[in-house]
C-alpha cells in the first residue's frame, strides 16, 4: 500500500475512536440505575446518577432563579451543595468545571467570580471538609471536573462527586502529603480548591 492509503486509514481509525468515545458519553453503563436516581448524600444534599457523562436532562435553578447547572453534571452538585448547605451563591453562576479555577488568582486569595478563597495544589493551606475541589481538563474530558471534600486526615482526603465517569464512584480517596511546608493532594489532575 502507498503511504497515502495508510494515512487515510490511520485518520479514519482516529475518527472512529473519537466518535465511539463521544457516543459512550451518553450511554448508561449501569442499567440498574436511572438518571436522576439518588445514589449518595452529604450533609443532607443528594448526589444523583447521571448515566453517561455527557447526559443532560435540563437546567436546575433554585426558586429564586439562581442557576445551579445542568442536571446531573458535577457542577450542578457542587453548586447545589454550596447553595443548600453553605448558603452560598456564586457571582458567576455559569461555566464548566475547569472555569471554577482562576489561574490569575494566587494561593489563598479571593476568586471574585466564585466569591470563594482559592488554593492551588500544592498549597500552604491544608484542604478542609466542604472545600470545592477542581480538576483540570483531559484529552477525553475538555470540561474538567469538580467535587466536594468530605473527609480530611493528615494522610488522605475523601471526596464526594456527581457524574464521575462510567466506572467512577460517588466517593473517592486521594493521598495527602505535607512536603516542604505545603500540602499536596497526590493527583496530577487536581489543580486546586475553593473555600467559603
Automatic annotation (TrEMBL):
<feature type="domain" description="Peptidase C51">
    <location>
        <begin position="49"/>
        <end position="195"/>
    </location>
</feature>
<dbReference type="InterPro" id="IPR051705">
    <property type="entry name" value="Gsp_Synthetase/Amidase"/>
</dbReference>
<keyword id="KW-0812">Transmembrane</keyword>
<dbReference type="InterPro" id="IPR038765">
    <property type="entry name" value="Papain-like_cys_pep_sf"/>
</dbReference>
<feature type="transmembrane region" description="Helical">
    <location>
        <begin position="6"/>
        <end position="24"/>
    </location>
</feature>
<keyword id="KW-0472">Membrane</keyword>
<keyword id="KW-1133">Transmembrane helix</keyword>
<dbReference type="GO" id="GO:0016874">
    <property type="term" value="F:ligase activity"/>
</dbReference>
<dbReference type="InterPro" id="IPR007921">
    <property type="entry name" value="CHAP_dom"/>
</dbReference>
<protein>
    <submittedName>
        <fullName>CHAP domain-containing protein</fullName>
    </submittedName>
</protein>
<dbReference type="Pfam" id="PF05257">
    <property type="entry name" value="CHAP"/>
</dbReference>
Amino acid at each position: 500500500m502507498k503511504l497515502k492509503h495508510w494515512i487515510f486509514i490511520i485518520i479514519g481509525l482516529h475518527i472512529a475512536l473519537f466518535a465511539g468515545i463521544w457516543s459512550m458519553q451518553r450511554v448508561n453503563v449501569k442499567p440498574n440505575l436511572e438518571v436522576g436516581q439518588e445514589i449518595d448524600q452529604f450533609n443532607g444534599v443528594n448526589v444523583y446518577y447521571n448515566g453517561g457523562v455527557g447526559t443532560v436532562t435540563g437546567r436546575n435553578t433554585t426558586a429564586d432563579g439562581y442557576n445551579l447547572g445542568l442536571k446531573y453534571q458535577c457542577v450542578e452538585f457542587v453548586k447545589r451543595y454550596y447553595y443548600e448547605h453553605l448558603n452560598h451563591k456564586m457571582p458567576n453562576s455559569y461555566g464548566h468545571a475547569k472555569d471554577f479555577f482562576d489561574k490569575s488568582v494566587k494561593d489563598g486569595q479571593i476568586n471574585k467570580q466564585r466569591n470563594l478563597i482559592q488554593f492551588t495544589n500544592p498549597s500552604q493551606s491544608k484542604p478542609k471538609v466542604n472545600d470545592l475541589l477542581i480538576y483540570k481538563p483531559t484529552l477525553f474530558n475538555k470540561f474538567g471536573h469538580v467535587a466536594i471534600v468530605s473527609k480530611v486526615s493528615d494522610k488522605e482526603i475523601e471526596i464526594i462527586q456527581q457524574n464521575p465517569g462510567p466506572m467512577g464512584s460517588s466517593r473517592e480517596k486521594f493521598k495527602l502529603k505535607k512536603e516542604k511546608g505545603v500540602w499536596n493532594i497526590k493527583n496530577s489532575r487536581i489543580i486546586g480548591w475553593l473555600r467559603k
